[in-house]
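Query structure, 430 tokens:
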């Protein structure tokens, strides 16, 4: 295997192919604190991409309840157990050494799904990627255990931490998921037909249906189980990132050629989603641009974290962790950057609060933002998860978003105006 650099792990790792990177990378941020599991995103994707015969069990977008839910069932717990079996007691982080550009979360000392493959010998020899094929029962229900809480017998310290908001004895949260369009996709690494590829212009991961023979190695190799087998065509399918929208080539939605957000993003009722593109340098690093909303949230402020970075695929889907969940569970899911992310989100400063207003504020993809400062409107006492008391100063700033061509497409104020409709003209007015 080749050696590639994974900045989320803070080190080089093994991968079946040489390191290559796109010019731009499709990426997104989900704010789990806002998700209400309305499944509007799920049905928008379903009605657009997976409504045909043979796709009945395909849910490219799904919202699952953690810790019990998942689609397919227990996808993450099963893979975590497999990696632990290969490397007992070694799946740990060393967060003592951090460097913002190359090691923002420290160094992961365990084995990725690619590095652990040498220890799993099958009839054809060592695997290229550690994984498993879900059963039909696993695929049967996309929202099994929805709204099921845990923690009835939870005792303080059981998860090596406390929520401190105050502590919730019973808890759950919603996790919205799509394909992460990883930098080092497990599906791509596992495919013996080389039918899977990353587009050089935007990093979206696609399957060449003419090359696919339905071996399902991609289903086995994807740690997030976002590649799915279609029985009536004997091929695999997955999220295509609504690439006509990302290209700006849809004649009806993008008449001026400006890229717009994907279907699941643009219908989000809870405004939990922010999706876009980040520039990638020739050496594979993210081009430093603190005016790009995604770069700002992910690399500059590190308030949004990758989902299971220890799998080693360098996913390009990022999450603002939920505030009320025991920290031990969140460390396992998002890595050692959890405390820093939640502290910032619990009491965002002036600039971060402004950028958070851009979530679902405009259908067009935002490549740049500016902030116009406004007057102070309030001082609010805030109790941080650590227990520290802090006063948050609120300013009525205006955040402005610009599209690919530098055109202003959205303008949002912190203090949103309230408009009352005239009673004589509207029956449902106040």
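Result returned for the query:
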């Amino acid at each position: 295997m080749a050696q590639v650099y994974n900045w989320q792990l803070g080190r080089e790792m093994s991968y079946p192919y040489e390191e290559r990177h796109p010019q731009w990378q499709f990426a997104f941020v989900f704010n789990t604190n806002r998700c209400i599991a309305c499944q509007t995103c799920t049905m928008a994707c379903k009605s657009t991409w997976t409504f045909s015969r043979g796709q009945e069990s395909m849910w490219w977008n799904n919202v699952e309840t953690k810790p019990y839910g998942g689609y397919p069932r227990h996808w993450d717990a099963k893979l975590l157990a497999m990696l632990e079996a290969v490397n007992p007691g070694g799946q740990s982080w060393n967060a003592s050494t951090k460097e913002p550009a190359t090691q923002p979360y420290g160094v992961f000392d365990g084995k990725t799904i690619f590095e652990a493959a040498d220890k799993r010998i099958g009839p054809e020899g060592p695997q290229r990627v550690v994984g498993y094929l879900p059963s039909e029962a696993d695929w049967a229900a996309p929202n099994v255990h929805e709204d099921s809480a845990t923690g009835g017998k939870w005792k303080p310290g059981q998860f090596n931490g406390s929520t401190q908001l105050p502590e919730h004895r019973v808890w759950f949260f919603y996790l919205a998921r799509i394909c992460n369009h990883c930098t080092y996709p497990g599906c791509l690494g596992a495919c013996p037909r080389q039918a899977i590829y990353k587009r050089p212009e935007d990093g979206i991961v696609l399957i060449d249906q003419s090359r696919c023979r339905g071996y399902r190695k991609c289903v086995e190799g994807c740690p997030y189980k976002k590649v799915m087998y279609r029985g009536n065509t004997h091929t695999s399918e997955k999220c295509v990132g609504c690439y006509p929208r990302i290209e700006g080539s849809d004649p009806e939605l993008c008449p001026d050629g400006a890229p717009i957000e994907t279907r699941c993003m643009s219908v989000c009722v809870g405004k939990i989603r922010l999706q876009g593109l980040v520039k990638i340098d020739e050496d594979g690093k993210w081009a430093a641009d603190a005016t790009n909303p995604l770069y700002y949230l992910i690399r500059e402020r590190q308030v949004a974290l990758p989902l299971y970075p220890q799998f080693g695929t360098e996913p390009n889907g990022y999450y603002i962790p939920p505030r009320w969940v025991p920290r031990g569970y969140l460390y396992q899911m998002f890595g050692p950057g959890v405390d820093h992310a939640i502290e910032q989100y619990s009491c965002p400063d002036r600039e971060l609060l402004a950028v958070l207003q851009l979530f679902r504020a405009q259908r067009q993809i935002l490549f740049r933002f500016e902030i116009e400062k406004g007057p102070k409107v309030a001082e609010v006492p805030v109790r941080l998860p650590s227990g520290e008391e802090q006063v948050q100063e609120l300013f009525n700033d205006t955040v402005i978003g610009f599209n690919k061509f530098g055109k202003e497409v959205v303008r949002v104020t912190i203090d949103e105006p309230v408009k009352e409709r005239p009673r004589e003209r509207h029956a449902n007015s106040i």
